[in-house]
Design goal:
- With 240 residues, the protein is α+β, with helices and mostly antiparallel strands.
- It has 2 domains: 102 residues, Beta Polymerase, domain 2 (2-Layer Sandwich); 122 residues, no CATH class.
- The chain is built from 10 helices and 4 strands, in the order H-E-H-E-H-E-H-H-E-H-H-H-H-H.
- The chain has a 4-stranded mixed β-sheet with strand order 3-2-1-4.
- Strand 2, helix 3 and strand 3 form a beta-alpha-beta unit.
- The longest helix is centred in the middle third of the chain and has 25 residues.
- The chain is globular.
Length: 240
């Protein structure tokens, strides 16, 4: 992607030999990136991060966010090598799907300690649901604002939902629509993988409330091991 090449060029010019690695991870590296719903997630590893590096990176990060992407994750070499146990979701994503855009592959030999994996998934899912509820309650009667909120939330909840499936012992190897094609017919659910339509704006509030409740069942189910399969299937239906 041309934007990624430009990002690497800007980072290389700014940091020169202090730039250790630039890694694209997540859907952008997996080949199922959707520009309308997916983020380009980038890890930038530097030899050190001081006020100097932050200052030099400010215009680059501002430009990148202006392109509609989240700011790159900045880490030192030491942090990249020793943070996998604290951020198992992020580093598991990096291990599963990554593309080295510059420098060395700092992820290749990392060990992701999964002892706290399920706890982090549950924490992140609950926190994002609480925030979604808080924001949704403010715009429930405003179809345009509610639709924007839902669209902006798609990428986050699809990522967390995939990790909830993994925590329940089900690995989703393809995109979310692939999961629906593969799993839903076996439980008799309606296959909506080909559906691209948007709900009637006048009925969007009801759709939001129903889907919010279905998604909430995922983290409620995470109190048991493994996750109830009915909740897993309903999540896959919701995110088709």
């Amino acid at each position: 992607m041309e934007e990624l090449n430009e990002l690497v060029d800007k980072l290389t010019r700014a940091y020169q030999d202090r730039l250790v690695s630039v890694v694209l991870y997540g859907s952008g590296a997996a080949g199922n990136h959707d520009a309308n719903f997916s983020d380009l997630n980038v890890l930038c590893v530097l030899k050190q991060i001081t006020p100097r590096e932050l200052g030099e990176g400010e215009p680059i990060l501002r430009w990148w966010r202006g392109q509609g992407h989240p700011s790159p994750l900045l880490m030192t070499e030491e942090e990249a090598h020793n943070s996998a146990d604290s951020f198992p979701i992020e580093f598991r994503d990096m291990q599963d799907h990554r593309k080295v855009l510059h420098g060395v592959d700092v992820i290749a030999h990392l060990h992701v300690d999964t002892r706290h994996y399920r706890t982090q998934v549950e924490h992140e899912l609950r926190a994002k649901l609480f925030r979604l509820r808080q924001q949704g309650a403010q715009v429930l009667s405003d179809p345009a604002a509610l639709l924007k909120l839902c669209v902006d939330s798609v990428s986050t909840f699809c990522t967390l939902g995939r990790h909830a499936l993994a925590a329940g012992g089900i690995e989703v190897t393809g995109g979310r629509r692939d999961a629906v094609h593969r799993d839903l017919p076996s439980v008799g659910a309606v296959n909506i993988a080909g559906t691209r339509s948007v709900p009637d704006p006048q009925d969007l509030g009801r759709h939001f409330l129903v889907n919010f409740d279905l998604t909430s069942e995922i983290w409620r189910g995470m109190g048991t091991a493994p996750l109830p399969r009915s909740d897993i299937m309903r999540y896959q239906y919701l995110n088709a």
